[in-house]
TrEMBL record:
Name assigned to this protein: Crotonase
Species whose genome carries this gene: Mesorhizobium temperatum
GO molecular function terms noted in the UniProt entry: catalytic activity
Source taxon at top rank: Bacteria
Family to which the UniProt record says this protein belongs: Belongs to the enoyl-CoA hydratase/isomerase family.
Annotated signal peptide: none
Database matches in SUPFAM superfamilies: ClpP/crotonase
Amino acid sequence: MNEVVTKQENQAFHIIFNRPERLNAVNEDLYQQTLDALKFADENPNIRCVILSGNGRAFCAGADLKAHKSGDRTRDEREAYIMLGQCVCEQIQTMKTPVIAQVHGYAVGGGAEIATSADFLIISEDAQLGFPEVAIGTYVGGGVTVRLPSLIGLRNAASLLLLGNRITGAKCLEIGLATEAPPADQLVERTTALVERLVKNAPLPMARLKAAINFPKSPESLFRAEAEDVLAIMETKDWAEGVAAFAERRSPKFEGK
């Protein structure tokens, strides 16, 4: 069985974790297959949005502790496993294509790192998200030590990371971690509505905006970098199409060119 299932629906690409019997706990194969799927999506001009989700009762329950407990991994194998997780989160945060995490059930540990890495987090109001690493003597990854405080502030990040608190989707929305926190039976519907909005937007400026907001530049370079982005976008066919559509009072049709 594939650890990850993928499917494309029009310009949306679904990456679905597929270890339901283990609550989609991450292992090397799941990480590698997810990374491969993310790279494929980002290199495909016909894909405008990626949706991460999980089969079964959870989005992703984090590390497969049974595999860790076996003690069969060498140090090099442990390092390879850790770096795969880092590469997945880095890919999500740095790829041009916007990524939505559609979370139900649980997003814990590595699953929370993946969810936090996404550009949009739509989590059912009764789902649970947490970083339990300190309680089990391990450490977080996925850029969380920087990304989480930037998303929800230092105090909220400290509560989640240093206390290992687990919070609901509703609380995620309250503190600014989630984009939406609908009832569980509306989760797919709300994700679909967001996808429909994203795929209509011009992909080239979205890619530049994603890079700019995820990795802010120093004040000295910020204004020049923004100017260079604007100038680059003004040279695209999509820019001309957007201007023309506005003048003609019609919806633009962007091609990513």
